[in-house]
Design a protein that fits this description.
This protein is of the alpha+beta class and about 140 residues long. The chain has helices spanning about 55-70, 90-105; strands spanning about 5-10, 25, 30-35, 80-85, 110-115, 125-135. It has a single domain (about 5-135), classed as 60s Ribosomal Protein L30, Chain: A (2-Layer Sandwich). The longest helix is centred in the middle third of the chain and has 18 residues, at about 55-70.
């Protein structure tokens, strides 16, 4: 039996710039597309990073991932894998501190994680995607 796919776009998010979903669920699998540290969407305002620093952008990126998880009926506890994309290897230690602090009270068993270094649009320092299994 095939399960339908359901797309999720929280009210805090803009419509994606191409043909993809911020989150998509099929059966009990939820894939959250790469989220960045943009502040919540405001009509008529271009997407704006939460700040120039890694901490501000990382916390907003986590909030954006969580918004998709919540919209789809999931939580960080359902996440089995995150992929983290950093623009600078020098951010690795600081990111780990923020990551550990943020998830400390949100998950009992942490999911797997991969971290890679990439180029992102100007001003963005981090992107995170997640995969969750529900039920």
């Amino acid at each position: 039996m095939s399960h339908p796919k359901t797309a999720y776009t929280p009210a805090t998010h803009t419509t994606p710039p191409a043909r993809f979903s911020h989150g998509v669920r099929k059966g009990n699998i939820l894939q959250v597309a790469g989220q960045v540290g943009f502040l919540p969407a405001a009509e008529g305002v271009a997407p704006t990073p939460a700040g120039p620093g890694l901490r501000e952008q990382t916390l907003q990126t986590f909030a954006n991932v969580e918004a998709v998880l919540t919209e789809a009926g999931a939580s960080w506890e359902d996440v089995v894998m995150t992929r983290v994309y950093l623009t600078d290897t020098a951010h690795f230690v600081e990111f780990n501190e923020i990551f550990n602090e943020y998830l400390a009270d949100r998950v009992e068993v942490p999911g797997a994680r991969t971290t890679v270094y990439v180029g992102l649009p100007a001003g963005l320092l981090i992107e995170i995607d997640a995969q969750a299994v529900l039920g």
